[in-house]
């Protein structure tokens, strides 16, 4: 069946090696090689160049890879539609999420859906912000939850919730209690920043540029958890989305302070999907429930008037 051939070829191209594809598909590498060879035989041309480092699609291989991706994703959408029609038993919902969002308010909708639809199965992959989009493009995830999504022609924002960037400090920090601080004041302290090229860091860099301030972090990390720990342990301060540390604030182990910078107010939590991927009814419900749960979190410094989308994103 062509679908099986295309699915194996799709995984091989996405993973960049026959061995990696075999691990994902839970088959022997020799089986993957035979399937690729059979697809090449049927199409009548070589699709992959093999090397020590893996496989690279030929020109024809890239054309077939794009077609295979569309077929595989469309088949997944078809299965979702059929599951909607006949019930949810055994349905797998795959979510790619940045680690800063793995907390009660973001995950509560999963528990609620599980109660309403007993047959659902969830898989939550915690990834750096830069890996959420690729996971959707590979077909590894159905939806992604990320911070400050940057425009991508292959992806679309299904829903968005404002989540301003705040100064995160240890309890009793000298900058607290005086109202909004400036980026120049922030730059005077040991600073931990997200290390990525996505929207979150771009907003922070824009805020610094607006004040003509040079940020020299003592810690850069792609991990929100690492930055939270840096603050919790008294290593310094950080700039993070308010909702990602709201549970810590409620427990009284960190404090937050607004920053007098317009770009930081435009930060968002975004639920994204592949543009060509149809979402099932259950996924639409999940997205609505996630956004409702996030909006229920009352942020102490958030102004309802701030709801515009940043031109940077």
Automatic annotation (TrEMBL):
Among its keywords, does the record have Transcription regulation? yes
Q: Which residues form the signal peptide?
A: none
The UniProt entry's GO CC annotations, sorted and at most eight, read: cytosol
Which GO molecular function annotations are given, in alphabetical order? DNA binding; DNA-binding transcription factor activity
**Domain HTH lysR-type positions:** 1-58
Tell me which UniProt keywords the record has, alphabetically.
Answer: DNA-binding, Transcription, Transcription regulation
Family, according to the entry, reads as follows:
Belongs to the LysR transcriptional regulatory family.
Q: What is this protein called?
A: DNA-binding transcriptional LysR family regulator
Recorded source organism is: Nitrospirillum amazonense
């Amino acid at each position: 069946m062509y679908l099986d051939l295309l699915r194996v070829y799709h995984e091989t191209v996405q993973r960049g090696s026959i061995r990696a594809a075999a691990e994902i598909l839970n088959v022997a590498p020799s089986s993957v090689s035979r399937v690729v060879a059979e697809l090449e035989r049927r199409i009548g041309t070589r699709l992959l160049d093999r090397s020590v480092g893996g496989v690279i699609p030929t020109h024809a291989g890239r054309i077939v890879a794009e077609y295979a991706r569309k077929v595989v994703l469309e088949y997944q959408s078809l299965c979702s539609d059929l599951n909607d029609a006949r019930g949810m038993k055994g349905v797998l919902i795959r979510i790619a999420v940045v680690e800063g969002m793995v907390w009660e308010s973001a995950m509560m909708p999963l528990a609620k859906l599980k109660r309403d639809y007993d047959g659902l199965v969830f898989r939550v992959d915690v990834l750096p912000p830069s890996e959420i989009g690729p996971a959707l493009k590979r077909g590894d995830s159905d939806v992604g939850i990320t911070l400050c999504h940057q425009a991508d022609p292959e992806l679309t924002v299904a829903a968005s919730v404002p989540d301003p960037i705040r100064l995160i400090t240890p309890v009793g920090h000298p900058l607290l209690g005086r109202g909004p601080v400036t980026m120049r004041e922030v730059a005077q302290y040991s600073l931990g920043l997200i290390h990525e090229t996505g929207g979150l860091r771009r907003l922070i860099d824009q805020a610094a540029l607006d004040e003509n301030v040079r940020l020299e972090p003592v810690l850069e990390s792609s991990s929100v958890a690492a930055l939270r720990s840096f603050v919790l342990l008294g290593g310094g301060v950080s700039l993070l989305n308010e909702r990602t540390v709201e549970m810590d604030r409620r427990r009284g182990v960190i404090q937050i302070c607004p920053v007098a910078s317009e770009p930081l107010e435009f930060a968002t939590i975004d639920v994204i999907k592949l543009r060509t991927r149809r979402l099932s009814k259950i996924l639409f419900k999940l997205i609505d429930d996630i956004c409702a749960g996030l909006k229920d979190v009352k942020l102490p410094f958030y102004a309802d008037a701030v709801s515009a989308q940043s031109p940077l994103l």
